[in-house]
Amino acid sequence: MFSIIVEKDLKVKLATAYIEGVSVRIDPVVFEKLKELSSQYRQKYINYQIGKIENVSYARKLFKSIGLDPTKYRPSSEALLNRALKGKEIYSINNLVDIGNWCSLEFLLPICVYDADRIVGKTLYLRLGKTTEGYLALNDRFMNLENRILIADESGPFGSPLTDAKRTAVTFDTKNAFLGIYAPFDFDDQKLKSHIFLFAERVKEFCGGNLSDIKIVLPNSDIF
Description:
By secondary structure, this protein is α+β, with helices and mostly antiparallel strands.
């Protein structure tokens, strides 16, 4: 389990869950859930502009709060939705990551899934990136994080609402998972609580494990 310190005046909420004893594998049932949801979006919003789709505004608001143009730097949830609407292929990684993508597409909020044992230390920091800060991202490119929302451990940044670092990525050897959902500061607390519980329940259903910690964190306090 981790304690999380949020930078003062950062207009963001982060719902987190810690699940011990997961089993990471390929699971076509989970991937089918993701593909079905993708198809439903494409059918329902075939003639919509992406910005007009219900709930897309939440992640955009999060980015705008720190001066990022969300049409230039897409939140990870919107990038996934954009692929779905254009009928582009959505790839299966493993059951745990696929659940994260499934939930991100359903909630339309950026979601993170980490191997908890690859995180250094027990205190995490949710803050804006400093000059020259960044990491090797999951797409094998260097992600510049200056003035962007990030989460860091004792070794530095390892995640953001854009894309996460390879350093803490989930693998088939992952046994303990750290989950997160980013939301703007004024996002409804009960709705965010419902989202993180559903996310955790899906992980337990398809990956096994035991939920040992769940919370919403914001500057200088936590809600539960």
